[in-house]
Amino acid sequence: MSTPPNPIHFYDEGERLPDILPNSPFPLFQAWFDQAMGERLTPNANSMSLATTHADGHPDARIVLCKSIDPDAGSVMFYTNYTGLKGHQLTNSPQVAAVIHWDHYERQVRIRGQVVKATPEQSDAYFASRALESRLGAWISDQSKPIESREALLEKAVEVIDQLGIDAADLMSGKDIHIPRPPHWGGYHLHAHTLELWVAGTGRIHDRARWTRALQIESDQVSVGDWSSTRLQP
Ligand SMILES: Cc1cc2nc3c(=O)[nH]c(=O)nc-3n(C[C@H](O)[C@H](O)[C@H](O)COP(=O)(O)O)c2cc1C
């Protein structure tokens, strides 16, 4: 007897999430991240939209770079200025949402959770690995504060370089110069309590699954429960 043709065969094309959802979404998230970062089909393959809550209670969002993933902790890391607008918003309300979209792979990762500041040692280590211009930039910019003109910003850059005792000739020569991390700049761990993986499907019959777990953070001490998962309609 011949097998009858599958009338909805087109929905089986393309990528799918595993039929049996894994206990944690993080190994698959990490594999997607590693692939995107390895293949670099876009220059900022680790771009992540980060949504915070403003003091007026309304949402705010901007892009930051997701610098690493810790599958064991169930967290991701980004770096920023602690005293800029998002820094203040995160101090007042550490509950955030984040989204990474990889258009070339037709994948999306949504995260909800809570941020905790990285340790000074973690921030120092990452800061030291940054390009010289970026390390200087962290000193120059009072992130999110007004400045009268671009020219004034560049004048400020010259002043800051002088205040840091950096020799202009050394700067021009391209020699590596030690620049300490500004105390107002560092990392955040975003610990997830909810994570959704999404892959595009034909005819908008996408494949989605959401994992949730208990997350409690008190005085930077993080405690979590086991993940539970469910598939979602697109
Ligand atoms: C591709 C891209 C990557 C960015 N990465 C970061 C980042 O890792 N950290 C950061 O503080 N700002 C980053 N920015 C700038 C932010 O989007 C934002 O302008 C800045 O952090 C100020 O936001 P705030 O005023 O809400 O604090 C990035 C912007 C783009 C477009």
Give a structural overview.
- The chain has one domain (9-127, 183-232): Electron Transport, Fmn-binding Protein, Chain A (Pnp Oxidase, Chain A), CATH 2.30.110.10.
- The chain contains six helices and eleven strands.
- It has helices at 26-39, 85-92, 120-128, 132-140, 150-163, 168-173; strands spanning 47-53, 59-65, 68-70, 75-81, 95-102, 107-117, 185-199, 207-212, 215-218, 221-224, 228-232.
- Strands 1, 2, 3, 4, 5, 6, 7, 8 and 11 form a nine-stranded antiparallel sheet that branches. A two-stranded antiparallel ribbon has the order 9-10.
- A hairpin with a 4-residue loop joins strand 5 (95-102) and strand 6.
- It is elongated and about 85 Å long.
- The mean pLDDT is 96.
- The site of flavin mononucleotide has 15 residues, from strand 2, strand 4 and helix 2.
**Span of the ends, CA to CA:** 35 Å
Look at the structure and name the CATH superfamily.
Electron Transport, Fmn-binding Protein, Chain A
CATH class: Mainly Beta
- List low-pLDDT spans: none
- Mean of pLDDT: 96
CATH hierarchy: architecture: Roll
Hetero groups bound? flavin mononucleotide
CATH fold title: Pnp Oxidase, Chain A
Q: Number of helical runs? A: 6
Radius of gyration: 22 Å
**Helix content percent band:** 25-40%
Estimate the global geometry from the Cα principal axes: elongated
The H-and-E topology, N to C, reads as HEEEEHEEHHHHEEEEE
Number of strands: 11
The major beta sheet can be summarized as: 9 strands, antiparallel
Number of separate domains: 1
Strand % is 25-35%
Helix and strand content put the structural class at alpha+beta
